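Onboarding guide, step 5: your first structure request.
Type a short instruction followed by the sequence, for example:

Predict the 3D structure of this protein.
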Amino acid sequence: MTTANAVRQAIVAMPEGKAFPAKDLLQYGTRAAVDQVLYRMAKDNEIQRIARGIYARPKWNKYVNAPVMPEPIEVAELVAKTRGAKIGLTGAEAVHKLGLSTQMPTQPVYATTGRTSEIKIGKNTIRFRHVSPRKMQFAGTPVGMAIAALRYLGKKQVTPHIIAKLEQVLTKEDFQTLRHATTALPSWAMDKFFEYEVRHGRRIP
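The system replies with structure tokens like these:
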């Protein structure tokens, strides 16, 4: 079987709308051969080029006759993986996901240990904002999401109510991990946890 046929068969077998990195197809031929097939398929609108080295099999919306793009987080995770970087939610997104605010971010922004950049996905733009590795210790976990939310809200907005909400939405183990994430949280946040515990007459082990 030729490289072209093998690559086409592999892509057709993928779910519609799924994003995939070109390197996953290197088992079917050399990088140059695979890239040539992907280039032709993208030119013929058989697949969509999402970002450098990342493509998607189109999923068409018959009502508007346009392709449905992959979820931003799916694309962001693939981009980070190809760059050898970590990603996590930024503060505004984390606050919304945890139910600490009803305000919805207009465009997805992700914190990353990689470089600051942006990728256009249809009418939307995915932005990557570089942060220090220290702030990304728990990236991709509920604890990391909570840390991003606390940093975003800041000292004045992190009230006992916010701490109580985090204790409610996180598992007991994750809340304990958050409480002791001394190297990832600012000192004022640790003070907030202590005040919360004193207020409730208990101490998180």
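Each response can be followed by summary notes, for example: Residues 19 and 74 are 7 Å apart (CA to CA).
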